[in-house]
Specification:
Layout: H1 2-17, E1 37-39, E2 44-45, E3 48-49, E4 53-56, E5 64-66, E6 71-78, E7 85-90, E8 96-102, E9 104-105, H2 107-120, E10 125-127, E11 135-136, E12 141-144, E13 155-161, E14 167-168, E15 184-192, E16 198-199, E17 206-208, E18 211-212, E19 218-219, E20 223-236, E21 250-255, E22 258-264, H3 276-279, H4 282-288, E23 293-294, E24 306-307, E25 315-317, E26 322-330, E27 336-345, E28 361-363, E29 369-373, E30 376-380, E31 389-391, E32 393-396, E33 399-402, E34 413-418, H5 424-428, E35 430-435, E36 441-444, E37 447-449, E38 452-457, E39 461-467, E40 473-476, E41 483-484, E42 490-496, E43 502-509, E44 512-514, E45 517-519, E46 524-528, E47 538-547, E48 552-560
Parallel strand pairs: 19-27, 20-27, 41-48
Antiparallel strand pairs: 1-4, 2-3, 4-13, 5-12, 6-7, 6-10, 6-11, 7-8, 8-13, 9-12, 13-14, 15-17, 15-20, 16-20, 18-19, 20-23, 20-25, 21-22, 21-26, 22-24, 26-27, 28-31, 29-30, 30-34, 32-33, 33-39, 34-38, 35-36, 35-39, 37-38, 40-42, 42-46, 43-44, 43-47, 45-46, 47-48
Bound molecules: zinc ion.
Length: 562
């Protein structure tokens, strides 16, 4: 009987620690080219973990994208930003695959989408086809790879999601990528964690020099420390056949042989992805553009990527005791990089103290906070900050200098401006701007209500009132007024707006809506004549472009086709 219980316990604890059980070889490579990655699952990105694989497409667009398994198209979403043109396939075994940044869909799906775009008179669209409408076998052509949306170059973004729409590491499903290279360690840091702790006679974060050994592992000089101490590591992985710096798969830490911390990139939920900002040393990232992952857990960090964490990963270093701390970084192929850190517990009285900038605004993370001056008010809801913090806030005319962008914000902080002193005509052209590089104002979504403008922000910085009195700019690319363009396959127009940015655009021919696809990366609107929307010989083209404060420009031209 006892043996039986033990066996159950053993099995359960094994499952809890090992990778999720998922079907192997069910999903096939969605491309006909070998899998080379420019991004891995869980890779650290700006405000989020990467939720899939970025598969290289030989620096070009238009490669055939195929259904990774049988199923049906369950969702199609087209956005100017984000995933651009994206397709979701629901599979009978409960998983969903996602294909992003597509150039266009297969002819059947493209016709389905365009019909809805014309019915809605919108390029941006979200559709949920029923099962049976767009049914697919494994390997069926669904789209062509592209570079639409927030993509830095042609590639296919490929995701596998579980039944709760949580993205999972596609490599768990037996998708293999050639990788014979060990993860690269770019830096190691030690963090004294409370008032009494210190590392190498300092209460500040310390960079620890890495010493490479002949066997390929690293060690460090002996660290002197006392009290609560944590570590952080900057690490990336490279696979074969590409120089891209991708994410690693697993980070583990041991203290004197006991596992005290583990981070596994197997699965996460979109609801938790922004907590990346408290996994990394955000302040270090802001100032150095390098992401250091903490090997300890901040109190308020609910990330499900953690496993086997003892005492939040913090070490309790005592005077006159020696410790061996070991960090192991592993990629999905099993290549490992190991760092051994010898620590000597040693109480020291001569400690360089932590620099603390005290201001008159102390904000507690678990309480809301508000302040007001010069007709500008700030409201910080509880839970916006991860930690209690002195904020540096000052007011200067119509500008609020709201701390520095080295502190992460989890949920929107509201800034309000009293605009009663401005004339109605002035107010109409005004908006709330974040002052960027060289003081350039960038539009922050502005809600206008009589004498009060508000905006929600998720980065600290300087915010002010700005005006945009200029209408958007419109310029035809491949036609001019009065021209015959029978040989053109499309109609291209460049549009841009200087200050507040483009809010909407609408094109018609002879009074009828025509679909134009907006590519913000090259400021281009494109109408494809193969839509069949332009049928006459003589065509009056009209394009209205509106910016975020309502300045409007209308461009009209006549063109002929036969
Ligand atoms: Zn991606």
């Amino acid at each position: 009987m006892k043996f039986y219980y033990l066996l159950i316990f053993f099995t359960i604890s094994q499952i809890a620690q090992s990778q999720p059980k998922v079907p192997q070889e069910y999903f096939e490579n969605p491309l006909d080219v070998p899998l080379v990655l420019s991004g891995t699952f869980g890779e650290l990105r700006s405000n989020h973990f990467h939720s899939g694989l970025d598969i290289k497409t030989q620096q070009r667009e238009g490669l055939e994208v195929k259904s990774a398994a049988p199923g049906h198209v369950s969702r199609i979403k087209i956005q100017h930003y984000g995933y651009g043109k994206a397709l979701y396939i629901q599979h009978p075994n409960g998983y969903t695959t996602v294909y992003g940044h597509l150039q266009r869909f297969s002819p059947e799906i493209e016709a389905y989408v365009k019909k809805q775009q014309y019915a809605n008179e919108s390029y941006e669209i979200e559709l949920f086809p029923e099962a049976g409408e767009l049914q697919l076998e494994s390997g069926d052509l669904v789209a062509y790879s592209g570079n639409t949306g927030g993509s830095g170059g042609p590639h296919l973004h490929f995701e596998i999601r579980d039944g709760s729409q949580r993205p999972m590491n596609p490599k768990l499903f037996g998708i293999e990528i050639q990788d014979h290279r060990k993860p690269i360690i770019n830096g190691l840091f030690a963090y004294p964690m409370d008032e009494d702790s210190h590392v190498n006679h300092s209460a500040e974060r310390q960079r620890i020099r890495l010493i490479p050994l002949k066997d390929g592992t690293y060690t460090t000089e002996k660290i002197n420390a006392c009290g609560k101490v944590g570590f952080g590591i900057s690490t990336v992985d490279q696979q074969d056949m590409a120089s891209n710096q991708n994410g690693v798969y697993k980070i583990e830490a041991n203290l004197n042989g006991d596992n005290v911390f583990q981070l596994n990139f197997d699965r996460f939920s979109f609801a938790e992805t922004r907590h990346l900002n408290q996994l990394i040393d955000y302040e270090y990232y802001t100032n150095n553009r390098s992401r250091v992952q903490k090997l300890f857990v901040e109190e308020s960090n609910p990330l499900s990527l953690y496993a086997n964490v003892q005492s939040e990963g913090r070490l309790e270093i005592q005077d006159s005791l020696d410790y061996n701390y070991t960090i192991k970084v592993t990629d999905f192929a099993g290549n490992e990089s190991v760092i051994r850190v010898p620590i000597q517990g040693e109480y020291s009285e001569k400690v360089q103290p932590k620099q603390l900038e005290e201001t008159e605004y102390f904000v507690q993370a678990n309480q809301s906070f508000s302040t007001e001056q010069n007709g500008i008010d700030v409201y910080i809801p509880k839970g916006s900050l991860y930690q209690d913090k002195y904020l540096d806030i000052s007011f200067n005319g119509d500008t609020i200098n709201l701390h520095k962008d080295d502190t992460p914000i989890h949920q929107n902080i509201t800034i309000g401006f009293d605009v009663s002193k401005y004339e109605p005509a002035e107010k109409e052209k005004m908006f709330i701007a974040k002052l960027g590089y060289r003081g350039r104002p960038g539009y922050s979504s502005t809600y206008k209500k009589a004498d009060r403008f508000t905006t929600g922000i998720r980065t600290f910085g300087n915010y002010t009132l700005a005006s945009d009195n200029k209408e958007p700019w419109i310029s035809p690319v491949n036609f001019s007024d009065g021209q015959w363009i029978s040989n053109n396959s499309n109609l291209k127009v460049k549009i841009s707006d200087d200050l507040s940015g483009i809010k909407s655009y609408r094109a018609t021919v002879n009074g009828k809506f025509i679909l134009m696809e907006y590519e913000y990366k090259d400021n281009t609107l494109t109408h494809d004549f193969s839509d069949g929307a332009v049928t006459e010989t003589e065509n009056n083209f009209k394009l209205i472009v509106t910016d975020n404060v309502g300045n409007t420009n209308t461009y009209e031209a006549k063109f002929f086709r036969k």
